[in-house]
Amino acid sequence: MSQWSQVQQLEIKFLEQVDQFYDDNFPMEIRHLLAQWIESQDWEAAANNEAMAMILLQNLIIQVDEQLDRVSQEKNLLLIHNLKRIRKLLQGKYHGNPMHIAVIISNCLREERRILAAASMPVQGPLEKSLQNSVVSERQRNVEHKVSAIKNSAQMTDQDVKYLEDLQEEFDFRYKTIQSLEQNDKNSALIKQEMLVLQAMLNTLDYKRKEVLSKIGRVIHEIDMLMSNMLTEELLDWKRRQQIACIGGPLHGGLDQLQNCFTLLAESLFQVRRQLEKLDELLTRLTYDGDPIPVQRPQLLEKVNFLLYNLFRNSFVVERQPCMPTHPQRPMVLKTLIQFTVKLRLLIKLPELNYQIRVKATIDNNRRFVLCGTHVKAMNMDESANGSLSVEFRHLQPKEMKTSAGSKGNEGPHMVTEELHSISFETQVCLYGLTINLETSSLPVVMISNVSQLPNAWASIIWYNLSTNDPQNLSFFNNPPAATLSQLLEVLSWQFSSYVGRGLNSEQLNMLAEKLMGQPVSYNDYQLSWAKFCKEHLPGKSFTFWVWLEAILDLIKKHILPLWIDGYIMGFVSKEKERILLKDKTPGTFLLRFSESNLGGITFTWVDQLENGKYVTFHSVEPYNKGRLSALPFADILRDYKVIMADNVPENPLKYLYPDIPKDKAFGKHYSCQPNEVSKPSDGGVKGYVPSVFIPVSKILNDSTEPRSPSDLLPMSPSVYAVLREHLSPTAIETAVSAGKFSIH
């Protein structure tokens, strides 16, 4: 079943979440019509490879054209209209930046996987629940409402200033007219009456000046209160959501909404600034005793400039954290001399700033590392599909500086993966007489010099962003705090949903909790130390919990991904629990679990019944690691696996996947070929030879009810093959060999 088919079967509350991240940037119609094709492409790789992204974009347009031809024949007018619109959008919006559509589709697919994983969980995790707080959603709506109200108030004040200007011009005209009269004319009754009118007009002017200043003051106060409270909280929440998304959590959105709020507030403040400038102009033409403008205007202008400074400083954000294109799902881990990308955005989108802001990137202040490559670029509105004012650095490389002795500091396999660094960015905005210096920094990054350090470096990134909201605590690992076990388990599930397409259920998480704590625990409020997670070896093992888990992720990604996504690998279950599950099942029922003693190993255990029918026995095969799975697909191993028990003919003991799914029904679609296919010499291989295949065979020497050790179930050796010959006729062996069924390991 395709991922999109699974999405369509979700409950309405999850479908509403899916609906939120499909918009005109990537219309849902295309996701629906091209589901299979979209899911078969590597959008993650294309998101960091422009040439690959361009090819995928062109192929996407071709796929849309094919759908357009199909619906044209069906005369579906509405769909024809939508597809033509979408085709035009794809060509116009992404032709100059094809990687952006790759990022969007990759994020959508990832978010679908996360939602599918969340739907399979009986209870929503604490972190995700906090991110979807209804209070937060209500605050977002309030911010947008208040920003809109402030914008309207500023525009209404513009009309008041214009009325004040017109009133003053009329006063000036009347006053100058009287002043131009002869002295005798000024004593007339008519002139005296006109003087009374002028006095009334001056009183009105004074009242309107005070009113306009009062309205301007209220607008400034509203902006100040909004920036100090709700908008600041919104920005902090977005940054927290970004932290969580970086470690596999829900896709963070809302930056476009924040940009709209910041831009409207900046426009309102500049509008108020122009209103104050107009009042200063009116002041130069007319002033009087008790005039409020010279008293109030300087204070109001100072407050406006202060708010603009703060608004601009808060608007300079890292939109996409540093990430190596080679490891898109491991952001903030940077390898020396390897390029990484990072994207920044100014949330105040004003046309006057396009190509006017040059951003400089640096690293740390301790002079241990320097950035090579293009580290100064101009922000513009052309590179982003949504027209945001942003800049993306794509060719930066961290390089470790040599020490005074001529050798490099910690370069090499011993570089500390708990040492945090920061990529800093600075720029200057010059606009309407204001000069504002802006600075921001990435979340802490970990430097490595060898990919073997990547797992532990990623563990550091997970622990930091799980444990703290502080975006710049570079001394965090001097005394790392404990983490709540329930939150850690939620993040571990995200590692699976984001990296290998399927998260962990409550039973699997319970097993991991027991693995971490050494015993069954109620983990809702349990605290786990950093050392327990990543530094201390598991009891009786030569590796840590995290190294063990990371090896399993790598095994799934490279060798058993389709089986994992289908949900047929139970994976995280102890030996004791597996026997409880299997003991009452039909003989031949088996389950798949990850090895607890071998890094990156997967095994299967099946239940069998002794001839007397009174007792059951369990058999576990030696774990298969990536080396053996590179030679033989795991689905084929399950199909072809044989055991030799006593004097019996070799047979496949695997009948039903737990609880009762026929083996071929579960894994049939993943077999590389049908088991009854007979290879012919012309099918391939060296001419004149019959192609051969590997077949996994194990031996069980007796029917003891004692559990078998893994060494009892090793792949078939030449000596075992000799036993096989004793129990099969020459004709049977010849037939099997001719069919390419047997090959000695």
How would you portray this structure in words?
- It is a single chain.
- The protein is of the alpha+beta class.
- The chain folds into four domains: 3-120, STAT transcription factor, N-terminal domain (Transcription Factor, Stat-4, Orthogonal Bundle), CATH 1.10.532.10; 135-313, Up-down Bundle (Glutathione S-transferase Yfyf (Class Pi), Chain A, domain 2); 324-401 and 416-449, STAT transcription factor, DNA-binding domain (Immunoglobulin-like); 507-511 and 543-670, SH2 domain (SHC Adaptor Protein, 2-Layer Sandwich), CATH 3.30.505.
- Helices cover 51% and strands 14% of the residues.
- The protein contains 25 helices and 20 strands.
- The strands form six sheets. Strands 16-15-14-18-19 form a five-stranded mixed β-sheet. A four-stranded antiparallel β-sheet has the order 1-3-7-5. It has a four-stranded antiparallel β-sheet with strand order 6-4-9-10.
- A hairpin with a 7-residue loop joins strand 14 and strand 15.
- Helix 13 runs antiparallel to helix 14.
- The longest helix has 58 residues, at 189-246.
- The two termini are 35 Å apart.
Set out the fold topology.
Layout: H1 3-8, H2 12-20, H3 28-33, H4 35-39, H5 43-46, H6 50-74, H7 77-94, H8 98-120, H9 126-131, H10 134-179, H11 183-186, H12 189-246, H13 255-285, H14 293-315, E1 316-323, E2 333-335, E3 340-346, E4 358-363, E5 369-372, E6 376-378, E7 389-400, E8 420-421, E9 423-431, E10 434-441, E11 445-448, H15 454-467, E12 483-484, H16 485-500, H17 506-517, E13 527-528, H18 530-534, H19 545-565, H20 575-582, E14 589-594, E15 602-609, E16 616-620, H21 626-631, H22 634-640, E17 642-645, E18 656-657, E19 661-662, H23 663-667, E20 697-700, H24 718-727, H25 730-738
Parallel strand pairs: 2-11, 14-18, 17-20
Antiparallel strand pairs: 1-3, 3-7, 4-6, 4-9, 5-7, 8-11, 9-10, 12-13, 14-15, 15-16, 18-19
Helix pairs in contact: 6-7, 6-8, 8-16, 10-12, 10-13, 12-13, 12-14, 13-14, 16-19
GO cellular component, one term: nucleoplasm
Pfam families: SH2, STAT_alpha, STAT_bind, STAT_int, STAT_linker
Organism: Sapayoa aenigma
